[in-house]
Amino acid sequence: MPQDAGMKFDKGSAYEASKDRTGSASRHWFTTPQPIKRLFDKVPLHTYPPNELPHRIAGSRDENTLYIFATPAGARDGTPSFNPGCLKWQTYLRFIGVAFVTVASNNHASPSGALPFLLPSSSSPLPHSEPVLPISSNRIQRWARELTPKKTSSKAPAEANDETSTGTNNEKMIVDAPDNADMRYEAYMSLLDHRIRDAYLYSLYLSPPNFASIAAPFYINPCSANFLVRLTLGHQLRAAAESELLKQSPVIDVEMIYRESGKAFQALSALLDSRDYFFDQMKPGLFDASVFAYTHVLLGGELEWKDTRMREQLEKYHNLVEHGERIVERYFT
Q1: What is the pLDDT of residues 53-87, one digit of tens each?
Q2: pTM (2 decimals)?
Q3: Confidence label for 239 from pLDDT (cuts 50, 70 and 90)
Q4: H/E/C letters for each residue in the chain?
Q5: How far, in Å, CA of 19 to CA of 25, rounded?
Q6: pLDDT digit string (tens) for 148-194?
Q7: Among 167, 156, 180, which residue's Cα sits nearest to residue 279?
Q8: Dihedral sign, Cα of residue 268, residue 269, residue 271, residue 272
Q9: Triad 36, 37, 38: Cα angle to 5°
Q10: pLDDT digits (tens, 9 = 90+) for 24-37
């Protein structure tokens, strides 16, 4: 299913989301018969390894290829993805100067079952003579570090959390964030991973106007023309979003979700202040890409938001709006 900041759907999501808010369920409908239970106790479920790439993809190794949620035309032109999880890494790779092309895809085509994933070119200089294998999103940053020379600031620790791209004599380098940004980085990243992500999940999947105008045409309809399949996919998406939100609270309090996302945007605006990029860096880094992944999807691109509460929250902070516009102008035009 779409990787909006890491949301996955599993087989139990619909059941878990259908429970009432106290956690009770109609057990007599779903209790496993004892003979079947004993059978599964004796023969445990087997977890299969990730799917292999289709041969037509595995043979295309001339360029680094990032598989993302996008329209075919958008992928061909390299325009920003309409999915925050994909756009984050698409933007980050542009920041550090890694050459790549984008391909419109979906989770079913991914070996890990989630987008984005990156297929390095056959000529990529990999350490230890490793075979060229698909790289999932949680390994893209590490792959980029191995691929790109890294210049560490004299103020930076050995293991920093943020990165920016700079260059001397056309050499692309990754510069770590300064010491005093480390603890703040984790704190501010949690705003994106929780408060803003939660509001985004609700706005996209559980707000009926946005589900009809964005989730259905961009995530469901391209998968199948069959009405029943689309209906099932829609139910799965909404159930998975509910399940994610119920991990944070026993009830889905819509007003609280939006109140917290508004505070998060305010905090990010204060952090950025009048600077071009976060953490007082000369060039944008992974944190800038993470913020841009949400701000651009909310403000720019091709999505038609009907429920505009998150957009209106964001538009109050002109420096965040200008931050997104700056990235589009410098890295996507």
Answers
A1: 554 454 456 789 999 999 999 999 999 999 999 99
A2: 0.76
A3: very high
A4: CCCCCCCCCCCCHHHHHHCCCCCCCCHHHHCCCHHHHHHHHHCCCCCCCCCCCCHHHHCCCCCCEEEECCCHHHHHHCCCCCCHHHHHHHHHHHHCCCCCEEEECCHHHCCCCCCCEEECCCCCCCHHHCCCCCEEHHHHHHHHHHHCCEECCCCCCCCCCCEEEEEECCEEEEEECCHHHHHHHHHHHHHHHHHHHHHHHHHHHHCHHHHHHHHHHHHHHHHCCCHHHHHHHHHHHHHHHHHHHHCCCCCCCHHHHHHHHHHHHHHHHHHHCCCCCHHHCCCCEHHHHHHHHHHHHHHCCCCCCCCCHHHHHHHCCHHHHHHHHHHHHHHCC
A5: 5
A6: 655 433 333 333 343 433 333 334 445 445 444 567 889 999 999 99
A7: 180
A8: positive
A9: 90
A10: 444 444 456 676 66
